[in-house]
Automatic annotation (TrEMBL):
Keyword line: ATP-binding, Nucleotide-binding, Transport
Residues annotated as transmembrane: none
Keyword Transport attached: yes
Matches recorded under SUPFAM superfamilies: P-loop containing nucleoside triphosphate hydrolases
Gene3D superfamilies: P-loop containing nucleotide triphosphate hydrolases
UniProt similarity note: Belongs to the ABC transporter superfamily.
ABC transporter domain ranges (all copies): 4-218
GO molecular function: ATP binding; ATP hydrolysis activity
Protein's name in the database: ABC transporter ATP-binding protein
Domain of life: Bacteria
InterPro entries: AAA+_ATPase, ABC_transporter-like_ATP-bd, ABC_transporter-like_CS, ABC_transporter_ATP-bind, P-loop_NTPase
Amino acid sequence: PPLVALRGIGRRFPNETVALDGLDLDVRRGEFLSLIGPSGCGKSTVLRLLAGLDRPSAGTVAWDGARPEIGFVFQDATLMPWATAADNVFLPLRLRGIGRRDAAPRIGEALERVGLARFAGHRPAELSGGMRMRVSIARALVVRPRLLLMDEPFAALDEITRLKLNDDLAELVAALGTTVVFVTHSVTESVYLSDRLVVMAARPGRAVASLDVPAPPG
Ligand code: ADP
Ligand code: ADP
């Protein structure tokens, strides 16, 4: 069975906006899934439903077993500007009641994975946009997620930084074996990164196509 099966999902907001209507979507274990579709079709809403940050107004979200540990990377790095990279990465552990001393090795490991071990003491303003996004990815990884949700993480970055982060993300995800649901506007990026693309129709959103991306030869 899939890691999670969304069936007949609807999401109507109190202002009567219908973001999703009749969305069926499986997230398969271990896949890198990209969600693409026009602005406003409900991609972020799908991520929030998966994360448990929002509830559907119709339909079911069925997990295969317990809901896994989830890491969320938001559009824009959304770091605390006053806090160092290490303190930003510490946040999800602190919220889980883990003390600084126990957290330290995990914070170091997460920053190491994104190539920023030497920047643990830097504040966001002292880092480049790409480095801030790496800190944000480390913050998502520090909980050792089995499901990583990413909402247009690289949209605000310049093309070169974006290509570099695409490469690094592909490597990171291959090493971790985490299931990923990745929202992007870029078809190029989704084809490069993903095992599968799901195309959503304009609002109210639903999945209209699922395309498997063949692995490159060799
Ligand atoms: P996408 O990520 O595909 O751009 P979203 O999931 O952010 O789309 O939004 C889907 C639709 O729902 C949009 O029309 C958006 O304006 C609307 N929407 C999102 N959140 C809310 C909310 N809290 N209240 C009302 N409308 C919302
Ligand atoms: P990124 O690709 O991570 O966004 P940038 O190309 O924006 O990085 O980097 C801006 C500056 O920061 C460059 O001088 C780059 O060499 C430096 N830099 C980025 N990542 C690292 C790192 N892991 N170690 C040392 N320097 C780095």
